[in-house]
Amino acid sequence: MDKHPGSSNSSSAAKAAIARFAPANRRRLSGASLRTFLVIANFWGLTEKQRRLILGNPARSTYRGWVKKAREHRDITLSVDVLMRISATFGIHIGLRTLFDDEQEGVAWLRQPHDARVFGGAAPIDLITGGTREMLMTVRRFIAAARGGLYMAPSSNERDWPPYDDSEIIFVDTEE
Fold it and tell me: What's the pTM value of the predicted model, to 2 decimals?
């Protein structure tokens, strides 16, 4: 009998985490992830230096080698850190597309100074391109919270929706 309840579950979770970060899995994800990152970076109008900062500031030659391999669909294996940074960028991009009716409004929001405490008056893009994963994640978390209704006013098409009233709420008994 196992001395620690739930240890088999934690053992399976540990095995899943190890498999997720295994080189073969990272290799499978790296090229497509980097190509998608480059599309977002182009859309946001980022310089090469800003792109490198988001990715953890690899040397210019390293970054250009990654880009060349990704564009040529050759094997590339990015580190867990770089893939996490790319994932955070994806989350920011998707969040902005959800929050704003027009994609360009989302880009404009990234570039404007923001008065939320976490931004300290800086533009979110300045935090994103600050070089630290923590600041990138801070913007990602802020946008995720905004998507959930915190921090930001709803987009214009959401303001046009009338609120629900009691007659629209339907309870269903699922035990029948």
Answer: 0.75
